[in-house]
Amino acid sequence: MSVTTAVILLLAAGPRATESKLTCVEVANKLLNCMDYVEHGGNVPPSCCSGVKDLKAEAASADDRRAACECLKTLAKQVPGINPDLAAAIPGKCGVDIGYPISLSVDCSKYVTII
After folding, report:
1. Would the pLDDT of 10 be above 70?
2. Would you say residue 115 lies in a domain?
3. Beta strands in the chain (DSSP E)
4. Which of 15, 42, 89, 93 is the least crowded, having the fewest Cβ atoms under 10 Å away?
5. 114: nearest Cα among 67, 73, 59
């Protein structure tokens, strides 16, 4: 079993922090095509950018946006080999403003709107 698959299974079993309809498994699945980039760099694949755009569109409520933010933090902590600087650069490289920085230290409760 791959590390990414193991993390997705762990996240699926974990408690939810909000009343979000968006699950961490859904967030992780949207961003699977970004994994090679955040581990090795290079060019951000178009499929990664599509996932980021889809995630932004699906994170319609404040609870969904907070849940997505918290999930990104959890994934960054639990998936080995992720370069945090590369992960943080994805929205800008994809031309998508997700409304909050991708960072382990971000306070997701402060970011409830996606521009």
Report:
1. no
2. no
3. none
4. 15
5. 59
In a domain, 51, yes or no: yes
Q: End-to-end alpha-carbon separation of the chain, Å?
A: 37
The whole-angstrom separation of Cα 91 and Cα 8 is 21
DSSP H stretches of helix in 59-95? 62-78, 84-94
**Distance in angstroms (rounded) separating the CA atoms of residues 110 and 91:** 18
State the total domains in the chain.
1
Query: How many residues are there in the chain?
Result: 115
Domain harbouring 101, CATH code: 1.10.110.10
- The CA-based diameter of the chain, rounded to the nearest angstrom, is 37
Cβ-Cβ contacts under 8 Å for 114 (sequence gap 6 or more): 56, 59, 65, 97, 98, 99
pLDDT in tens, 38-84: 999 999 999 999 999 999 999 888 889 899 999 999 988 888 899 99
On whether residue 103 sits in a domain, the answer given is: yes
Measured between alpha carbons, how far is 101 from 88 in angstroms, rounded to an integer?
A: 7
Which residue segment(s) compose the domain that 87 sits in? 3-12+21-110
